[in-house]
Amino acid sequence: MSVSRQTNRRSFLQGSAAVGTAAMLTPSLRRAVAQSSSERPVFASIGLRNQGTYITGKSIKFADFAALADVDAHVLGANVEKVQQAQGKKPDAYKDYRKILDRKDIDAVMIATPDHWHTKIAVEAMLAGKDVYCEKPLTLTIDEGKLIEKIVEKTGRVFQVGTMQRTESEQRFLQAVAMVQQGRIGTVQKVTCGINGMEASPAIPAVAPPEYIDWDFWLGPAPKVDYRALPEMREGYGGGVPLYSNCHYSFRNWHEYSGGKLTDWGAHHVDIACWALGATDTGPSRVTPVEFELPVAYKDGFPQVIDQYNAATSFKIKVDMPNDVEMIITSEGDNGILFEGTKGKFFVNRGKITGKPVEDLAHDPLPDDAIEKVYGGPVSENHTANFIEAMRSRKQPISDVWSHNRMLEICHLSNIAMRLDRALQWDADKREITGDDQANAFLSREYRKGYEINMV
Questions:
Q1: Is residue 91, in this structure, part of any structural domain at all?
Q2: Residues lower than pLDDT 70 in the chain
Q3: Mapping DSSP to helix (H, G, I), strand (E, B) and coil, where does residue 18 land?
Q4: What span, in angstroms and rounded, lies between the C-alpha atoms of 116 and 385?
């Protein structure tokens, strides 16, 4: 995002004559601003398995959790107990997130549901007067991103996307962005985002859903389908659920609920790449699927098999970026980002930052304020801390919806290009695919009756 664009987005409320800062604060947050910067805002979490548990747990340091919501009774109960132990007070528990939105004592919600629920809950939360922290990837479609932007501007709510690499990972990614923007590799020519692939699945039979999961509510806006699972259980991260299913953990393998690795890890590494390139206010001109493998047959962009994973298992996508920079998004190689320029190259991921330009910092360090210039000020303690600082200042946080949506458009377009098996021309100003009505139809989706977004 350019400096002028970034300044405008983060301070857009200051120019609003219609709504003053004090009017936008909920009662408890207004007291926090008026009384003490150490006053704790009141939060609620919606969607609690895995990442929901993680972001709730790390946020208890900064906020009081009054309520939790999840359609899985086991997940909900376990997290109520964890939060009670951590903060000394039991949060209220709900299956239906709308009961949280009805409460006037809650300042903000943290959303960590499967991706297909993000937009509906986020929009309704903002309209209910809540600030929002929503996990990445923010949307299931490009048009959902445009809607969220519209509602942020309409309501003046503060909205943090959970692309925590912008704040955390020992500032390695901030260092990478600073190095590129300080010219340490010269003119950037190529950026490679390694995001790993996904597995295929055997045929997964339709079975009765577990009695503790409200399967219809889990599906929500997605099409009504049978619950599917095999008896083998998943171990390790995300464990305790069927290894193959169309529900917990495995939802990312289905286009009906997510975008596979392209939106899962792409939302992290493509984001950092675009930030370093200064391309968070624009987009690509062309997205080309160089090589890829879909686990099932597709026709007209739709999977022809209903009982197997359908997101791409491997891929190499070429993205034509501004200033003649070539971006490659690949399932091969090390997970992370390789920046290549006329004066050198370096690699960064969550565990390391390596290459001669990095080694050269020992005798030619970055300016003392380089990281803060990238971040827009002192780096926050963690991503939630940045969100709460933004809630108090009424400025948008480090992972704002506009920059997130621009980079996520690359990931969504990559999936559409693979599903249709052709390159796509993208008009970054109009935010639509050029000369391809069939491809443009994938920019939005129809919400299941009864689960439409409540815009009231």
A1: yes
A2: 1-38
A3: coil
A4: 26
Q: Are 105 and 190 in the same domain?
A: no
Would residue 207 count as lying in a domain?
A: no
Q: In this predicted structure, what is the pLDDT of residue 402?
A: 98
On whether the CB atoms of residues 174 and 318 are closer than 8 A, the answer is no
CATH number at residue 24: 3.40.50.720
Q: What is the pLDDT of residues 435-444, one digit of tens each?
A: 999 999 999 9
pLDDT at residue 38, rounded to an integer: 53
* 406 lies in some domain: yes
Q: Are residues 189 and 87 in the same domain?
A: no
CA-closest candidate to residue 106, choices 120, 92, 116, 119: 92
> How wide is the angle at C-alpha 115 spanned by C-alphas 269 and 147, nearest 5°?
90
Total domain count for the chain?
2
Q: How far apart are CA 187 and CA 351, in angstroms?
A: 26
Task: State the pairing for strand pair 286-293/314-321.
Answer: antiparallel
The domain of 98 spans: 3-164+386-393
Task: Give domain status of residue 128, yes or no.
Answer: yes
Paired tokens of 196:
């790993």
The pTM score is 0.93
Instruction: Tell me the C-alpha distance between 13 and 437, whole Å.
Output: 37
Q: Residue 359 belongs to a domain with what CATH number?
A: 3.30.360.10
30, two tokens: 């207004």
Strands (E), 61-178: 64-69, 92-94, 108-111, 131-134, 159-161
